[in-house]
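ok trying this again, last paste got cut off
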Amino acid sequence: MKIVAQNKKALFDYEILKKFKAGILLTGAEVKSIRQSKVNLKGSYVTPDKNAMWIENMHVSPYQPNNQKDYNPTRKRKLLLKQKEIEELTKAFHDKGQTIIGLAIEIEGKFIKLEIAIGRGKKKYDKRETIKKRDLDREMRKKI
């Protein structure tokens, strides 16, 4: 398992409640581009639509040898999940204060998987607490 891209900002902005792994429906050029780590998850989110889950705002740069004129790097991409997972994510999406975010893209053998999570937005004081804890951990490691 090789992590190609991570959404570090999501871990700072959201309290993670539950994680899932999903496959992504991609074109061949997008797969090659992701294998070259030309993907960005910053600002990506998942929405339900017609009994399926879609990731939006995930930026996959165009594969250079394949010059496509009409390529949209932030198009909606379908996620491949089990029906129970889709129902659970749809319910969480409609709950107030919860959102579904992309955390990481991993390569598992010949498959590309997206790690998504149900998250609840952190308040400003929670973010300050996270920063304070991170700084204390860093200082403890320096002393050792």
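PB: full thing came through this time. The longest strand covers residues 14-24.
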